[in-house]
Amino acid sequence: MISSGEVVEFHQACLAREDWPENRVATDGLHSVWEWIAANHRFNSLLWAEEDLARRRDVPDSEIARNKRAIDSFNQARNDAVERIDEEILVSVGNVLRLAGARQHSETAGMMIDRLSIMSLKIKAMAIQAERADASSEHLENCRTKLNRLLEQRADLASCVDALLKDMAAGSAYFKVYRQFKMYNDPTLNPYLYANKV
Q1: Phi, then psi, of 55 in degrees rounded to 5
Q2: What's the predicted TM-score (pTM) here?
Q3: E-only strand ranges, 122-194
Q4: Tens of pLDDT along 82-136?
Q5: Which of 104, 124, 130 minimizes the C-alpha distance to 8?
Q6: b/e for 8-34, b at 16 or more Cβ within 10 A?
Q7: Alpha-carbon separation of residue 45 from 11, 16, 78 (angstroms)
Q8: CA 53/CA 3 separation, integer angstroms
């Protein structure tokens, strides 16, 4: 079984690499859930970079359209990886007896791990802002306050991940994988795409 501490450490190690997210991180020899945790974090990192680029005002609209299409693609891949994380966690928990009165958790473990990934990206970005040499002291102090809040939020979320996994192993909690239905990406479900099919 994984722990939130291992996940946070993995996220931080990836972000510290100079070749991240362009190059994947090897997860050989680790439980297969790590392959999907790595994929999710990579797609979140690529998505983050594209979101920054999509806010540019000094490039042609065609560049922004390219960014928006990349965002759609990375977002779909990110959600697919979340579902695979959930599948791997459910397999690793095994056929644990679900106790009578076990509570259903509204958010899956994979969704929470996805949020830990996003939190690590926010923390990295805010830490950079909190140390900018060209920024005012007011900006730096404001960013340090936000950074501390983000660190607290990640710690709280991490403890919730561990509590859910512990309760699942004990049979007192469970979650369901419903599957995401991203209708706008599906040419058979998006009215504009199927109506204008040539």
Answers
A1: -90, 0
A2: 0.89
A3: 173-174
A4: 999 999 998 888 756 677 888 999 999 999 999 999 999 999 999 999 999 999 9
A5: 124
A6: bebbeebbeeeebbeeebebeeeeebb
A7: 10, 12, 10
A8: 33
